[in-house]
Design goal:
- With about 150 residues, the protein is of the alpha+beta class.
- It is built from 4 helices and 6 strands.
- Strands 2-1-6-5-4-3 form a 6-stranded mixed sheet.
- β4 and β5 form a beta hairpin.
- The chain is globular, with a radius of gyration of 19 Å.
Length: about 150
């Protein structure tokens, strides 16, 4: 009897932990917007970058405040390396979704090849998204560089 009870408690704990870790469709939609924003950076696609951002996006990068024009200039226009390649991976920490606002915290790892050199960068980032016309868009992005190797 004790073994059966212990077994049932263990199964219940496993089910509860897995249920807490699953993401909702709303959370997945928000996370997908973040991923698509970085995919646009990876492909140097300014049109897609703007499509996943609000017109008044603010980015807090390296102690500076950037807008969409600064981001496009630094990440796309000035990035003329013919061998450029960027691969991103995300570890989502927390995603909170309200009716028209969402907050996402995640770890981002990016492998970047540029001018014959390969870099591995790691950030801790927080993004605030706004929902407009049934579409999530990045409104604020705060980035903290954790590691550059």
């Amino acid at each position: 009897m004790i073994k059966a009870t212990t077994f049932l408690i263990a199964i219940l704990c496993i089910v509860l932990v897995q249920a807490q870790q699953s993401t909702t469709n709303k959370q997945q939609a928000v996370q997908q917007t973040v991923i698509q924003l970085f995919d646009a950076l990876s492909t140097r696609d300014s049109i897609s970058l703007k499509a996943h951002s609000t017109a008044d996006i603010t980015l807090y990068e390296y102690g500076q405040v950037w807008n969409i024009d600064t981001l496009i200039s630094k990440a796309i226009t000035l990035n003329t390396a013919t061998d450029f390649k960027r691969t991103n991976s995300f570890e989502f920490i927390n995603t909170t979704v309200d009716k028209t606002t969402a907050w996402v915290t995640y770890r981002l790892k990016s492998a970047i090849t540029k001018d014959g050199k390969q870099l591995m960068l790691q950030w801790l980032e927080t993004v605030v998204l706004a929902k407009s016309k049934k579409q999530w868009k990045v409104k604020h992005l705060h980035s903290t560089l954790i590691n550059r190797s």
